[in-house]
Structure formats: structure tokens, C-alpha cells
Amino acid sequence: MSELSISPLERSRKAYSNVLQAMQDPGTQRNLAQIMGTSESTISRAKNTLEDALALMYHLGFKVVSADRICVDRKRYEALETIARAAMADEENSKKLFWEQE
């Protein structure tokens, strides 16, 4: 299934799952509570409303990505993808991209 055919609700559920996974490490909720100046129980309650908040964001056309990702304009990405695909389709170009072990 292509990324474009996934519904906003499915995308939001995946984002919610990723957030919950990130919060599973021991001490994470305590650290978040400390950083945010609140209690662990407040963080725990926030998880209950997070799924709906993420669904709302995805239906509005936003998305959640981890901080280690770099977001680029879709048109620029598609242009680079087109250039790369054309380069790989040319056998001469594609051979230059691979080096044999000596």
C-alpha cells in the first residue's frame, strides 16, 4: 500500500503507537513530568486524549515526525526522486554508483 493511500486515521494511529513506544522506557514519564513542570499522573492522562488529538491533526493535513527526521517540500522531494530514478535507469550511471570490493 502506498503512503498516499493510507487514511489520515490510520496514519494518526501509527503516530500514536510511535509516541506510546517512545514513552515505554523506564523513567520517561517521570522525566517528561519534570521537564513540563507537572505530575506523572498528568502525563498519563494526557496519553488518553493524545489519540484524538493526533487524529484531528492528521485530518487537518498535519503529521507528526520524530525530531531526527528532516522534512522537505513534497515538490522538491518528488523532483529529486525523479532525477534519482532517471539516473538509476541509465545503466552507465547506475554502474558508477556501485564499487566492487578489491
Protein described:
With 102 residues, the protein is mostly helical. Helices cover 65% and strands 0% of the residues. α1 runs antiparallel to α3 and α2 crosses α3. The mean pLDDT is 88.
Number of strands: 0
- Which structural class do you get from the secondary structure elements? mainly alpha
Largest sheet: none
What is the average per-residue confidence, as pLDDT, rounded to a whole number? 88
What features would you highlight for this structure?
single chain, 102 residues, mainly alpha, 5 helices, elongated
What topology emerges from the helices and strands here?
Blueprint: H1 8-22, H2 28-36, H3 40-59, H4 74-89, H5 91-96
Concise account of the structure shown:
With 102 residues, the chain is mainly alpha-helical.
